[in-house]
Amino acid sequence: MKIYLVGGAVRDKLLGLPVKEHDYVVVGASEDEILNLGYQRVGKEFPVFLHPKTRDEYALARMERKTGPGYKGFAFDTSPKVTLEEDLLRRDLTINAMAEDDNSTLIDPYGGKKDLDKKILRHVSAAFSEDPVRILRVGRFLARYHYLGFTVAPETMQLMRDMVSAGEVDALVAERVWKELERALTEKNPEKFFEVLQQCGALPILFPQLSINGSGMRALSDACNLTKDSAVRLAALLHDYADGDKKQLSEICKRYRIPNGHHELAKLTAAYHANVQRARELSADEIVDLFARLDIYRREERFDAFLIACQAIYPGIESNISLLRTCAKAAKSYPVQELIAQGFDGAELAEQLKSKRRERIAHVIARSP
After folding, report:
1. Do 80 and 176 share a domain, yes or no?
2. N or C: less crowded end of the chain, CB within 10 Å?
3. Total count of domains within the chain
4. pTM of the prediction?
């Protein structure tokens, strides 16, 4: 039995970047042998195990054979006879198909180091075309490494175009699309994820009406300078989705089962970002109504996220955002206990509280330069 460090850890180490995760491949061992050493199996489709102490992932070397459409249509061979080279051959990109032995000796049968030096994302073999998730992964890796000068190899882009034409993208399941999208949104240049999809023809299939030249993509780029929060970045991207068609925005979120928090922030941003742009034209009544719709009294963090998304959409409106923050602080500062002590409750309490908040907001507006 031999154990090798593989994939991202080797790649990022060679790039001089922090290594966040260590994944290993075990060659020449069976599942029973691994379990007898105290490892815990976690893989559902093929054997992956957690080290009993470090909790790093160890997978049996495997080969795979296409048996059906999509990323689930594979049969796996994890016998002890599978070699390291055979395991690396099934990987997506050459820069991810390198390994190190326990002496830190690089094992690079498919030219990953050369492509790493040339800053090229290149598929390892024709087997790349058997898994449509790999199109999304190429986009995500370009989003991550574009700032270093990486590009997609022309032959890899052509292969992805062929995959799209063959209908492979249609077999993508919602969870995998969202998983790759969410990870791409946290990278340095998430707009590159969508550019890759555009170039290979997958963008109109996966994200209809989303344009790489639209204001949403520009807002996404600006959001990257303000926050790493994927929910805020998504809200900035989708603020004008389908020319303001909120129904299509909801449909795309439901289609990919995007988490409720991301979905709600995107909907609120699409609905009310224009109010922030014209904040200094709003009356106290309109701001009170806006705050109620945004539910700022119970969802303070979401309100902050909303304002950051709006700042990405409208660069240079910091003074408007500052005004709304001051108004919100004033509105939230009124002690509701005073009204309760005066005997107000129910609908009457709510109306009195709204009136007091309106007064405080009006005072802020009157003093605002």
Report:
1. no
2. C
3. 3
4. 0.89
